[in-house]
TrEMBL record:
Residues 179-222 form a coiled coil. The keyword Transmembrane applies. This is DUF4349 domain-containing protein. Residues 42-71 are annotated as: Disordered.
Amino acid sequence: MKKLSISLFCLLLIGCNKSENIAKEEVRADLTEVLQEDKVAFSSPVASNSPQPPSLISEKTESENKSNSPTQRIDTISKKIIKNGDMRIQVGDIKKSQNQINEIIKNNQAYIQKEEFQNTDIDENLYITIRVPHKKFDALVNSFSNGVGTVLSKNISSNDVTEEYTDVSIKLANKKIYLEKYRDMLKSASTTKDMLEIQENIRELEDEIDVSEGRLRFINDRVNYSTLNLNLYKEKVRSSATSNIGFGSRFGDSVTEGWNSFVSFILGMISLWPFFLLIPVFVFLWRKWKGRKKK
């Protein structure tokens, strides 16, 4: 009987120890869940009632933002090459050559952005700024080089702006991420000071985003459509009797230049009037000196 009571007592102690260990494990589990919830709430940008200032955004969030779509977009951005060109062609007839050029522009799916004509006594010049799809740029230049006239000068340049485009794209994506975070913080702002501070940062970010998007649009436009500045040049014949630069025109120009030279001489002499006032003084002194020498 004594042995039986001792055995029951031992079993009772073992059961109490097990229940105590189970209770401790449950308490630890509860504490772990509470700590995890607190950690999540602390790491969330909108967890507290008063939003954090923009300067207190964690570096971890910034590193995560940089490791998202902006970094991955580097691999998807293709080469960005801007092609520009300048050509000067001497032709026999400006109007005829212009019709030929318009046909070439139409065949290469290009368009004229600017056109300017100058007519002087010596020559005629037609300046045309052409925008052409980058794939058609070389074909357009070759078409102008063959059959239009004599190429006096040609300058073709290429500018790789891939690095600039990638840099602007990454910064733009990061700014959009921060903009969304600031908007979330604005919803949970509790004081007027915090609201004004966040709204000011939102306004600055929106302005920077507009500038970056405008720069990307400009680069895409210059990449998709190359620019060619074309100058058609015609030298006028000088031996024609009806020409504006014939003998009569030259004679009139010579008379005009002679008269202008005479007027310039008179005006130059008049500008020396202070020196003319000194001539009588020098004459008087010279005579006086000569008289003394005779005595």
